[in-house]
Amino acid sequence: MDIFTTEELLSLMEHGDDHCVSLFMPTHRKGPEVQQDPIRFRNLLKKAREDLVSQGLRGPEADELLHGPRNLGGDSMFWNHQSDGLAMFISSDRWTHYRVPRSFSEMVFVGDRFVIKPMLPLITGDGRFYLLTLSQNQVQLFQGSKFSLTAVEDMGDVPTSLAEALQWDDPEPQLQSRIGGPGRGGRDAAIFHGHGDASEEAKTDILRYFQLVDRGLSDLLAGDNAPLVLAGVDYLLSIYQEANTYSNLLEDGVTGHPDREMADDLHRKAWEVVEPVFRAEIDATVERYNESAGTGATSDNIREIVPAAAHGRVDTLLVAEGAHIWGQFDPENIRVEVRDEAEPGDEDLLDLASVLTLQNSGVVHAASPEKVPGHDGVIALYRY
Predict the structure, then answer these.
(1) DSSP codes, 75-105
(2) H runs (alpha helix) in 167-262
(3) Which CATH number is 6-116's, of 3.40.50.1000, 3.30.960.10, 3.40.50.970, 3.40.50.300?
(4) CA 32, 129, 147, 319: dihedral to nearest 10 degrees?
(5) Residues near 291 by Cβ (< 8 Å), separated by ≥ 6?
(6) What are the average pLDDT values for consecutive 10-residue runs of the chain, which has 384 residues?
(7) What CATH number does the domain located at 293-382 have?
(8) Which residues pair with residue 94 across a beta bridge?
(9) Distance from the first to the final alpha carbon of the chain
């Protein structure tokens, strides 16, 4: 699984080329469906080639553009290590993919920029979060969504145990005498006495350990703002809160011994913590919209929203997941054309409104269609 951050989203938004391919598809972690995923992928690449040729690229040029991705079709190692969804972005000078804990519908878009709206739930709204499980002997980061929880394979410079983190600071026998070890009461138990309080020296060691974890995590998640949930015994969660510098660490956590939890139970408990946070963000946006509707401070009309977003007027945008509005925007004449079906040269105006809002420092949320008021699958709150 790959970490997808706000910085990467902005990088995709800013990238332009004559021929940009955005490909999205559901993938599977196990079962017979895994064998079907590369077949679906090759079919999507075939569709991308057809669209590239229809937009003026010669056949050999289209084949050259898709050469690298096409090689993945027969890479069994790649398909055996998937999450719930695959997003791929291809241009003449860029090719990148993300395996993410969110399923997509099968889609291919070809245009002069990448399509980013399907990725928005991974950044805000009913989407992505992190779970950090804590013990002295093991730290593990997971990326989760409403539907799944997946371990982050490459944790960069995040130390995964207290002994690893402090091995250069303390002679091993001295360190082991403070943190405990085999035969001394079990994991996370030996240094605590009485009512579960640690000695001050042991607490200092753990705090230093977690400061190093936090430092590595800050590098790994630079530019990200997804909620972070902690899981572990109470005293470790308290000490980590003291060490933390990540901007969106949630106050509530999952208490207990995470290494003893089944994966499904750990995911359920983490989602119970984070789901109200996502719901509150969407509910607050809708409430603000309802309070200001009809005053000129809001809109649910895509013909009004796109120009407003282009001029930096949109403070907050809420778009319906899976919805598309096809058409074109003429910025010189400030005119938006909307069509029932896509025609050559058209783009998804909901995607365009999202890009323009983010480029002008606005906030974009994605939510299920039933949570979005109005008839266009989008609402906007204006700055002025």
Answers:
(1) -HHHHTS--SEEEEEEETTEEEEEEESS---
(2) 172-179, 200-220, 234-243
(3) 3.30.960.10
(4) -110
(5) none
(6) 75 87 93 91 96 93 95 90 93 92 90 87 71 90 83 86 67 48 44 50 88 93 87 94 95 92 90 90 93 94 96 95 92 94 88 90 88 90 95
(7) 3.30.1330.30
(8) 91
(9) 41
Question: Which residue, 134, 129, 130, 162, is CA-closest to 232?
Answer: 134
Residues 6+ apart with CB under 8 A from 192: 198, 202, 235
Q: Is 138 helix (H, G, I), strand (E, B) or coil?
A: coil
What is the CATH number assigned to the segment(s) 129-277?
3.30.420
Query: What b/e sequence results for 126-162 when a residue is b if at least 16 CB atoms lie within 10 Å of its CB, and e otherwise?
Result: bbbbbbbbbbbeebbbbbbbbebbbebeebeebbbeb
Hey, what amino acid is at 129?
A: F
Q: What is the pLDDT of residue 187?
A: 47
Which residues touch 328 (CB under 8 Å, ≥6 apart)? Answer: 336, 337, 345, 346, 347
pTM of the complete model: 0.66
**Alpha-carbon distance 138 to 151, whole Å?**
13
Separation between Cα atoms, residue 217 and residue 214, nearest integer Å: 5
Structure tokens at 355: 């890009």
- Other C-beta atoms lying within 10 Å of the C-beta of residue 109: 21
The amino acid present at 81, given as its one-letter code, is H
Tokens standing for 125? 């709204």
In whole angstroms, what separates CA 191 from the centre of its chain? Answer: 37
CB 52 within 8 A of CB 19: yes
The pLDDT assigned to 168 comes to 52
> What's at 130, amino acid-wise?
Y
pLDDT at 169: 53
Do the Cβ atoms of 52 and 44 come closer than 8 Å? Answer: no
Where exactly are the structural domains of the chain?
A: 6-116, 129-277, 293-382
Instruction: Report the alpha-carbon distance of residue 27 to residue 45 in Å, rounded.
Output: 15
The pLDDT score that the predictor gives to residue 38 is 95
Token output for 216: 């590595």
CA-CA distance, 208 to 165, in Å (whole number)? 8
